[in-house]
Amino acid sequence: MTIYKGSLKYAMLGVALTLPLSVYAASDEDLSDIRGQIKELKDSYEQRITQLEQRLKEAESRQAETAIVQAQVPVQQPARSATSSVSAYNPAISLILSGTYQNLEQDPSVPITGFAMTPNDHGYTQGFSLQETEVSIIANIDPRFRGEAKLALSPDDGIGVENAFVQTTTLGNGLNLMFGRFFSSLGYLNEVHAHAWDFVDQPLVYRTFWNNQLAEDGVQLRWLAPTDTFIELGAEVGRGLSFPGTSRQKNGVGSSVLFAHVGSDVGVSNSWLAGISLHQTKQENAQFDAVPDLLGTEGGVSNLFNGNSRTAGVDFVWKYAPNGNMRLTNFKLQGEYFRRRDTGTLTYNLTEPDSYSVTQSGWYLQGIRQFKPRWRVGLRYDQLNSGTAQVGFMNAPNIISNYGYTPKRTTLMLDYSPSEFSRMRMQLAQDKSRQGLADTQFFVQYIMSLGAHGVHKF
Amino acid sequence: MKKIFCTLMYILLVAVTAPVHAALEVFACEPEWEALTKELAANKVKIYTATNALQDPHYVEARPSLIARARRAQLVVCTGAELELGWLPTILRESGNPNVTPGKPGYFDASTYVTMRDIPVSIDRSLGDLHALGNPHYHLDARNLLLIAQALSARLVELDPANTAFYASRLEAFKQAWQTAITRWEKLAAPLRGQPYVAQHQAYTYMNAWLGLKQVAVLEPKPGMEPSVSHLAQVLTQLEQTPAKMVVRSAYQNPRPSEWIAGRAKISEVVLPFSVGATKESNDLFGLFDDTIARLLAGI
């Protein structure tokens, strides 16, 4: 107990001695610290102020110099300070957010009449739905190459690689080589990404002939003629990645494209671009389900097609803006026509192979008018011709060779863009692409782009 | 058939080889650079101008004709500072002409030779169409053109050394004439000093710094955004407290907002050519500033 008492006493004494002492010591240190800091601050501010005053004086005298004794002004070298951090090498990244509300009277999964052997539903989603989110990453790779990737984040399943290609930058002589996965340069609309479309959806001819857009894994070479008129020739070879290709995995070339574009200005207010394109691929075991037949099989049958698919197209765009000033008002007239011939063997109901060939075509014409800054209105007319098929003797009683129906659609669009980076759109369509199922379709859409500034393509 | 083919090949050959013997081919992004290049190089160059003064240089499309002209260009003269961000990179890439890509002697970015103003501290799209490298409308301070002329002339010499003496004498003559003109303009513009005005777009920062005008408001709520009626009404109330003498816009801009303010605030509306060729009087660089100052003086 005494020991305890004694030690307690010592301890208390110790506490009593050290506590206030340490407090005092600390505050003394702090105070001198603070004083020191204040002094430092004061000194540095004074220093900075004198520096600033000096720089101001210098700047003023320099300004006076440039104004008065400019004759001696030396050629200034580019004096932009380079950002020194590692992030300066980061690529330009942008993100597209898009969503729709769709009000349809008919079931969107019903195929377009006469196009049972193509991607033929409209690809619509009724009600509110998120559209593809697109991430775009672009940068120069080194002095010779430039890379670009566009990743499509589908609203329900994972990431798709929409584009991932490399372009040369130093070939010269008007040559540009591109390799990787890209949207083919055929036609006018094919290269245009969904966020830059003038309507919510692609024209019917793009929907049925190219499954919206022809993507390719391959190589493209373009050559621009050294003339005042824009003349561009190009060729692509690839795997036949997307429809009508069947993404065959074999040595050699699965599909090829040839295209030519010509364009120019007419005065300061008008400019135009016209093109022709040829596409050729081989379809191997292309299977199409739910194909209606002459027997009226419930739910249709499954057919296989093996053969050649050749498509030719023409396209033109005419743009008008008073004095060429796109910002205020402008008008764009655009049209395309595609014609495809499929020749080969059709296996009816996966059992009965015989010869089959058909020529189908489609076109659209659209006009977009920006009637005041930020506001645009558009009208589009679509039409398809399913053609008459030559069906081999064996399959003649089963396969419908002529549907006797012309799919059509008329679309009206109004959009408002508060800035270059945001757009809100309403669209009304009278759809007669499916026989006996006339549909009045109403869409509301938003398209927003975040990050790096996009390009103003023609 | 063979004859036609041979003729076609001959035409192609001529087309490919012809430019080699011709004058230096220049692609000017804006008319002010066409005018300056003409002052410095006269007939030693062949100039194509991508835009005219009635076009908003921020909103130009990579038209086929521009790509075709950039293909053969030996020198591209542009404002830089990201003014042409939406279209020039595409044109240069599509043209397949590696001689005029950034970093090459064939690419002349005039903004690197002047002191930039309005460099934003932070950038975010909510603040509007900001240029990270600063306000790109620096050509409205006539003193800047002297610096650019010097650099551009040096570039012409680098690309076309055979005409060195010619370019040197043209530069000397231009400098003399321009300096005299600056003195004249500064004298002429003396009454403008301290005069309050409203700008439609943040386009006159450099002009203000040079001539001493006092910009008290901007009609665009954020740089590059079209003014809404509610924002214009706000500017109008602001003008009751800090009155302005005039509202100023560039010729290529939407006339509506300026007219709206001018009518309601009972102030004059001044339309500046902004670049060469927008008005009859602004047919060259000297005319551009003569006309700009005359129009401003008429506005106060």
Explain this structure:
The complex is a heterodimer of chains A (458) and B (300). Chain A is α+β, with helices and mostly antiparallel strands and 458 residues long. Chain A has 2 domains: 2-72; 91-451, Porin. Chain A has helices at residues 2-68, 204-210; strands at 92-103, 127-130, 133-140, 145-153, 159-168, 175-183, 215-224, 230-238, 255-266, 270-291, 301-320, 330-348, 352-372, 375-385, 390-391, 408-419, 422-432, 439-451. Chain A has a 16-stranded antiparallel beta barrel with strand order 1-3-4-5-6-7-8-9-10-11-12-13-14-16-17-18. The longest helix of chain A has 67 residues, at 2-68. Chain A is elongated and about 105 Å long. Mean pLDDT of chain A is 86; it is low at 1-6, 11-26 and 61-81. The model of chain B has no long low-confidence stretch (mean pLDDT 92). Chain B has 2 domains: 24-184, Rossmann fold (3-Layer(aba) Sandwich); 190-299, Rossmann fold (3-Layer(aba) Sandwich). In chain B, strand 1, helix 2 and strand 2 form a beta-alpha-beta unit. In chain B, the strands form 2 sheets. A 4-stranded parallel beta sheet of chain B has the order 2-1-3-4, sandwiched between helices. Chain B has a 4-stranded parallel beta sheet with strand order 6-5-7-8, with helices on both faces. With 300 residues, chain B is an alpha/beta fold. Chain B has 10 helices and 8 strands. At the A-B interface, strand 7, strand 9 and strand 10 of A face helix 1, helix 3, helix 4, helix 5 and helix 6 of B.
Structure summary:
The complex is a heterodimer of chains A (458) and B (300). Chain A has 458 residues and is of the alpha+beta class.
Give the biggest sheet of chain B. Answer: 4 strands, parallel
Largest interface: A-B, 60 and 56 residues
Give the beta-strand count of chain A: 18
Please give the largest β-sheet of chain A: 16 strands, antiparallel, barrel
Q: How many structural domains are formed by the residues of chain A?
A: 2
Pick out the low-confidence regions of chain B. none
Give the class-level CATH name of the largest domain in chain B.
Alpha Beta
Rg of chain B, Cα atoms, Å = 21 Å
Annotation field: number of helices of chain A: 2
* Percent of sequence in beta strands of chain B: 5-15%
- Distance between the terminal alpha carbons of chain A, to the nearest Å? 98 Å
